[in-house]
Amino acid sequence: MTVSADILVIGPHPDDAEISAGGSIAFWCRNGKQVVLAVCTSGERGTADRSITPEHLAMVREQEQRDAAAVLGIHEVIFLRYPDQGLEDTPAFRQDIVRLIRTYRPTTIVTCDPYRRYLYHRDHRITGQVVCDAVFPYARDHLAYPDLLEEGLEPHKVRELLFWSSEDINYRIDITATFAIKLAALRCHQSQLAGLESDNLETWVRRHAEEMAAGEPYALAEAFHRIEIIR
Fold first, then answer.
1. pLDDT confidence of residue 196
2. Is 189 a member of any domain?
3. Residue 17: its H or E element
4. What is the pLDDT averaged over residues 45-51?
5. Phi, psi at 37, each rounded to 5°
6. Pairing relation of β-strands 221-228 and 171-174?
7. Half-sphere exposure of 55 (CA within 13 A, CB side)
8. Do the domain assignments include residue 1?
9. Is 108 inside a domain boundary?
10. CATH number of the domain encompassing residue 113
């Protein structure tokens, strides 16, 4: 069975979507777009707290992600639950992403830029690369993963890719009106904010958004590398 979504956001961990695209997601949702978020891992290793188990942290972080998604207006959150710090470019992971694309049939996919140089979280790099490959050619071609056809999932052509954390920015979205919503969503991720004062969070996020909007006729932005797929 397929269901329609305008935009599919695919992040490696809980909070990645809010940090990199939360203002844009809020903007899309408030303008009638249906946004679905897929989180590839539960982020169960993302802590300095030695008293918490990975199993408990996974539950905490998934609930934080659900809360943040509700703030942004996201329609649905899917957890793939691959191991944090353990994502690999495998046929199974790629098929899961192809399944999402064929199920939700988005016009736009938003994810990590796989080509950021030097120090970069491996889960982010792998996520971006697998999403690229899933979009083209695997989601498009009916002979790729033919078992998905047996599930009723027909091929789908995505029209647009937006990559966050890119070193080759060519597309910006004005988030001046949705900055407060982005910040509220980020604050849902309390397990990741230990030791960070609320004012410091706002200062850091605002400064980055101002940098992304430099030279534009608006105050705050999120920036991406955009690819339009014409085929």
1. 62
2. yes
3. helix 16-30
4. 90
5. -115, 130
6. antiparallel
7. 0
8. no
9. yes
10. 3.40.50.10320
Cis link prior to 114 (omega < 30° from 0)? no
Residue 117 near residue 165 (C-beta atoms within 8 A):
no
As given in the structure block, the two tokens for residue 188 are 């849902």
User: Minimal CA–CA distance to 75: which of 137, 6, 139, 174?
Assistant: 6
Residue listed under structure tokens 């105050």: 219
Q: Is the pTM of this model over 0.85?
A: yes
Compute, in degrees rounded to 10, the torsion defined by CA atoms 99, 100, 104, 109: -130
DSSP H or E segment with residue 207: helix 198-212
Mean confidence (pLDDT) of the chain: 95
If DSSP codes are grouped into helix, strand and coil, which group holds residue 76? strand
User: 114-132 pLDDT, tens per residue?
Assistant: 999 998 999 999 999 999 9
How many domains does the chain divide into?
1
State the Cα–Cα distance between residues 55 and 84, nearest whole angstrom: 11
Amino acid 156 reads H
65 within a domain of the structure (yes/no): yes
Domain residues for the domain of 210 are 7-228
Give the Cα-Cα-Cα angle 217, 220, 223 (nearest 5 degrees): 95
Rg, Å, the chain Cα set: 17
